[in-house]
Amino acid sequence: MIRKLIRRVFLRGEPAGRKAETIAVAKHGIRRDQVSRGACRTCEALQKAGHRAYVVGGAVRDLIAGIPPKDYDIATDATPEEVRGLFRRSRIIGRRFQIVHVMQGPETLEVSTFRAAHDEETLKDEHGRILRDNVWGSIEEDAARRDFTMNALYYDPTAQVVLDFHKGVQDIQRKTLRMIGDPRARYREDPVRMLRAVRLSAKLGLRLDPQVQAPIRNMADLIENVPAARLFDEMLKLLFSGHAVECLKRLRDEGLHHGLLPLLDVILEQPLGEKFVLLALANTDARIRANKPVSPGFLFATLLWHEVLANWEKRQKDGARPVPAMFGAMDEVLDLQGEKLAITKRIAADIKDIWLLQPRFEKRSGHAPLRLIEQPRFRAAWDFLLLRAESGEAPQELVDWWNKFQDADHDTRERMMLPDTGKKRRRSRGRGRKAAAEPTGSVDAP
Ligand code: ATP
Ligand code: MG
Fold first, then answer.
1. Residue 303 belongs to what domain range?
2. Which regions of the chain are under pLDDT 70?
3. Which residues does ligand 1 sit against, CB inside 6 Å?
4. Helical H runs in 36-138?
5. Which of 28, 310, 345, 364 has the smallest C-beta neighbourhood within 10 Å, fewest atoms?
């Protein structure tokens, strides 16, 4: 409390950042019943305790743009400890950027305290990237630190007004993504903002303000300094935005895809690989828009598949046996990826499962097909095979056979399974197929 008082007295008279324009319902168009109950309740409880509290950021932007927000952030002048004290179901999380998770029914709200502007004392790395960020400030300062004008809007559900510090409402209406401050300096502080610019423009169909767009090509390499775990989170947001195809297209247009997924530029330059990746992304977009579940393992398996195929083929040409060659290829591709993008261990295991099951679809003799169907990851592997066939990399005939096999009763299955004569017969069946897709032996999952 005393700290808050000192802060207020201290800050009065020199408010950093701009004064807000107060925008009424008639202009912002947000109806209170569009705002989540949890967000309204959290703001009300904070306000009742004498604090300022607003819905902020992406949720306000999306509501004004007519898109249902995917989550809600709350900004307040209460410190994390004060917030924690007001809500029984809440906890303080984060170190570099401390926030409070407040649980309201099934919702989790992210409540953050207004942050102060950065100064010489802000802890940064040698490239100017901000490392620690827990100095509290005024709402004006908090607004000035946000990335884009349309992300610096504060909605008060009680008064039903929007505080607009940087003409963000106008930019939403004009469909232009504008940066607060000098874009070059803002990218240097946090290179992830380049990715955010692309993602938001794809999601909301915005054009990039020329000043936002121009520096990206030259500054793209700064992405390399971003910790791999943060980059992975950002990549997931991008790929699961429901607009992944558009995001990737725009990333490529801006020259941003290179550092991101080290292999993506290679993939996108191979005709088969590109078709496969685009099909996979379109498939993910459709699932997300239909509210169906998606798995990161599956998507990353598709993004990297053609690299694994090429690597696997090369190893076999160099004389390695198919099984060790496959394991070697998987590890090499994932390790290379891991240097830039920290794919979590669990997701990496999912990816490998899906890859390892692919050659097993070719084994249609003996009891191999029955054993394959019983694999826990069979569904994902099957969906993966469908995409491979659609892109022309796996034979349609294989898909037709498995379709029939899965629907068949026991006797039909027995008749369908080819006699167990080993390699000779399989080789004759595989003629004419793309060499990389064709295993010369069987690969069994571990
Ligand atoms: P969405 O949730 O739709 O992906 P968002 O803009 O809400 O988009 P979040 O990551 O949820 O993105 O961030 C919430 C808010 O925090 C943003 O609207 C913005 O005001 C601020 N913010 C997020 N990341 C940054 C950043 N890198 N630099 C400055 N401000 C940021
Ligand atoms: Mg958000």
1. 227-419+439-446
2. 1-17, 119-123, 128-132, 259-269, 420-446
3. 57-58, 70, 73, 146-147, 151, 190, 192-193, 196, 237
4. 37-48, 58-65, 80-86
5. 345
